[in-house]
């Protein structure tokens, strides 16, 4: 049977037709239209799904189910989105599944976008074949998802597993969420850029100044690329960033004991350069690592498709 | 049907006959004999169970199951205890369930002691009727247990949920486990005593000196009792300790979204004095607290019986 997977982002809605081998047969991407009202945005999401099916030559009625990943806090059981600040003026306590179910002819399942990503990677990507997986998506923020005993772990009312907002440094750096010291406040790309700027201010001769000038901005690449070329200030930034991240991952391993940890998002493009450092650091930050060992940290491999595939299979986890 | 629950500690083995209303009909406590070899200690555990049944007027054969809580890392599925440093010279990778199953006439289940405590409190104690519970036991160390969706959460291979060793302060205070900055390194009674001593060294006129002299020692009560009497240095210790603990609990709430958080162990004897402070602080440390709210922090009510009752019902969670 075919399944529909939809990944709703702040900018684009991506919808894909997914087969039973977890392959995306066809996908479409349409603008989210962030200023549309709730009802209009829900209609856009439904239409994106219908479009994907039609373009692939199918009728949605032939599908076994549709899964939709939303960037926000939601309860998968009730289908209520409690908070999605990036969707059309901010969704709050909207009965999303109920609303969209009226527009689609197949059973609809909903999930958090980071949770969809870990489902996709576990079924078809870098964590394939594992029963226990933790995934962090490092981007503007830090998203997280957990598979435990083959099931998606979502916490009470589906509102847990907000791994980006676990504490890393009590009373530490301010986080966009309003708390202090969250993992996200140290390990997001946004945080890395702040750390990069700070080091550049300290070292006016750092190669990062030249690199940023050529690139036209300071971004998540600045410190990493200059570190590869041996720039001391950049190496300092990368070393510290990797320690923060390894410490956060260590705490997640202590809590969830995954068989594998995945890193997704923009920063995962640093590939072995990042993964090797993290894997070398991890044992320092895991409880009883000498007795139980530590899981490998791997790069997620499906990119944006993870969310689409995972959404399509939400009913299975 | 009756069930046997056994709580194995470093000093005593407590065994209880538990009925279907979660009532302990009879219990016995025998010395663990920490210097006995593995086989001897397992025999002691089995005998404690038989003794409890016999003294209550039953034959173990009439029981539906036996559950045994162990202070260590173990895999409930395989029954292998990976690490239990406080049992007879340190157990490591012992096939505990297999060994004890040969000595007992009913199916045996095994669990971590802190996990048994949260099961007991959820079935019959302070968290009764809740589907999502986090419990911290504050003693020499910090033990933790999680119930999610009515099931015991144990992580991959049963080795997760080591809540005392989640990070609270990256590169922070050294922990007995060898890591730095663990929740336990700030929130155990051992940590509180260190914090108390430090404040006493700073304030030679603090009432804590007199209190400790009369008590004959500095312990987990010193700062709390003197804080209640208005001693500034003691209030400072208690205020900081509560912030550490509330921050740790906040991170656990963000991760697990429990309906209720329980505090057990010696420090829970501070009752409302501690719980009121923690409940007041908690919203500061929970992700999206203004939208989702925060759970109440309550004192565990079953004391040592929680472990026995929970062990007896390990097969049900």
Descriptive report:
The structure is a homodimer of 317-residue chains. The first copy, chain A, has 317 residues and is of the alpha/beta class. Chain A is 38% helix and 21% strand. A 5-stranded mixed sheet of chain A has the order 3-2-1-4-8, sandwiched between helices. Chain A has a 5-stranded mixed sheet with strand order 11-10-9-12-13, with helices on both faces. In chain A, helix 5 (189-202) packs antiparallel against helix 8 and helix 7 crosses helix 8 (232-256). The longest helix of chain A is centred in the C-terminal third of the chain and has 25 residues, at 232-256. In chain A, 57% of the residues are buried. The mean pLDDT of chain A is 96. At the A-B interface, helix 8 of A face helix 8 of B.
CATH topology-level name of the largest domain in chain A = Nucleotidyltransferase, domain 5
Give Rg of chain A in angstroms. 20 Å
Shape of chain A: globular
Strand-and-helix sequence of chain A, N→C?
Answer: EEEHEEEEHEHEEEHHHHHEHHEH
Name of the level-1 CATH class of the largest domain in chain A: Alpha Beta
Distance between the termini of chain A: 17 Å
Determine the structural class of chain A based on helices, strands and strand pairing: alpha/beta
Mean pLDDT of chain A: 96
Helix content of chain A: 25-40%
Number of helices of chain A: 11
Query: How many distinct folded domains of chain A?
Result: 2
Q: Largest beta sheet of chain A: what is the strand line-up?
A: 3-2-1-4-8
Low-confidence spans of chain A: pLDDT under 50, at least 5 residues? none
Count of distinct strands of chain A: 13
* The CATH fourth-level homologous superfamily of the largest domain in chain A: ATPase, nucleotide binding domain
């Amino acid at each position: 049977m075919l399944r529909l997977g939809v990944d709703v982002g702040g900018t684009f809605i991506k919808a894909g037709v997914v087969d039973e081998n977890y392959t995306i047969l066809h996908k479409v991407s349409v603008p989210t239209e962030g200023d549309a009202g709730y009802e209009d945005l829900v209609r856009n999401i439904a239409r994106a799904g219908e479009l994907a099916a039609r373009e692939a030559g199918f009728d949605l009625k032939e599908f076994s189910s549709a899964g939709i990943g939303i960037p926000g806090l939601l309860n998968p059981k009730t289908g209520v989105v409690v908070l999605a600040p990036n969707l059309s003026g901010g969704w709050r306590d909207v009965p999303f599944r109920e609303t969209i179910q009226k527009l689609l002819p197949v059973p609809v399942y909903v999930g958090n976008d980071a949770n969809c990503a870990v489902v996709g990677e576990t079924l078809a990507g870098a964590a394939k074949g594992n029963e226990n997986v933790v995934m962090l998506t490092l981007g503007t923020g830090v998203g997280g998802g957990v598979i435990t005993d083959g099931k998606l772990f979502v916490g009470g009312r589906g509102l847990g597993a907000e791994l980006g907002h676990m504490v890393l440094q009590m009373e530490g750096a301010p986080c966009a969420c309003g708390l202090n010291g969250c993992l996200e406040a140290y390990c997001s790309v946004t945080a890395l850029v702040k750390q990069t700027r700070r080091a550049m201010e300290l070292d006016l001769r750092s190669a990062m100044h030249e690199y940023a000038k050529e690139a036209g901005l300071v971004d998540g690449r600045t410190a990493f690329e200059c570190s590869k070329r041996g720039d001391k200030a950049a190496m300092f930034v990368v070393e510290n960033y990797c320690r923060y991240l390894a410490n956060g991952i260590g705490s997640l391993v202590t809590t969830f004991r995954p068989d594998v940890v995945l890193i997704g998002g923009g920063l995962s493009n640093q590939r072995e350069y990042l993964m090797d450092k993290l894997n070398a650091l991890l044992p320092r930050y895991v409880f009883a690592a000498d007795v139980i060992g530590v899981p490998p940290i791997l790069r997620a491999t499906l990119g944006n498709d993870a969310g689409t595939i995972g959404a399509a299979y939400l009913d299975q986890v």
